Amino acid sequence: SDLEVHDYLSQVLLRKGDLDGALEQLQSLLANFTGDKGPILERIAQIAYMKEDYDTMSQTCEQYIQLSPDAPQAYYLLHHSLLHKSNPVAAIAMLTKAIVLNPNFAEAYLSRAQILLGMGDLNAADDDASWLIEHVGAQEDVLLLKARIEARKGNTEQAIKLYDDLTEVNPFSIEAYRERGQLKFDSGDKTGAEADMKKDLELNPNQLANVSGDYSAEGIEHHVRQAYSAINPLGL
């Protein structure tokens, strides 16, 4: 019943994929631990997130905030639960609180920008994206975010350039080929759209399983239009 044993056992069970077992050990540890319970609550919240148990996640994060009101990670974790409960405004508030407590919290900037983009607040999303590019650099998630913002703003050439950069960082990014192909198709570049569609199909054949036949048989435009109308490339 040593607390350290509960701790190690929770880690082993988590690595084995036994989320319920890991959670049980952490809850036992939490009930008997007299020190800083913040890290334990953080791990419980993370496992609840993996289990998609958002009620437990919310309760744990709120307990975490009560014990450690200056812990940015507590607010960041809580935003996941709020987002999955269809409360994006409250999720943004939690992310903003996390950023206030930790001005270099890159994950919080990224999540907030993604939510803002989904809500259509392109300028606010772009502010966060610009911060990320300045402080984090041209990472995959950042490039994808910025490309989507430019696409939504109607800056097609700039968006395509960002997708080009993304495919250099990750040549296996399905989102990059799919979304760049949509932009190329909309701007009249059917050859470029076809190339991106073929790459998308190569990387994820199940996604375009309903598109069959030789590309030239019925015409590039028909196949590309069929593919892109079926998969909603921008995912917005």
Distance from N terminus to C terminus (CA atoms, Å) equals 50 Å
Classify the oligomer: single chain
Low-pLDDT segments, ≥5 res: 209-220, 231-236
Q: Please identify the structural class as seen in this structure.
A: mainly alpha
Choose one word for the global shape: elongated
**How would a textbook summarize the main sheet?**
none
Helix run count: 13
Q: Can you walk me through this structure?
A:
The protein is an all-alpha fold and 236 residues long. Helix content is 75%, strand content 0%. It is built from 13 helices and no strands. It has helices at 3-15, 19-32, 38-50, 54-67, 72-84, 88-101, 106-119, 122-135, 140-153, 156-169, 174-186, 190-203, 220-231. α9 (140-153) packs antiparallel against α10 (156-169) and α12 (190-203) packs across α13 (220-231). The chain is elongated. The relative contact order is 0.06. The model is unreliable at 209-220 and 231-236 (pLDDT under 50).
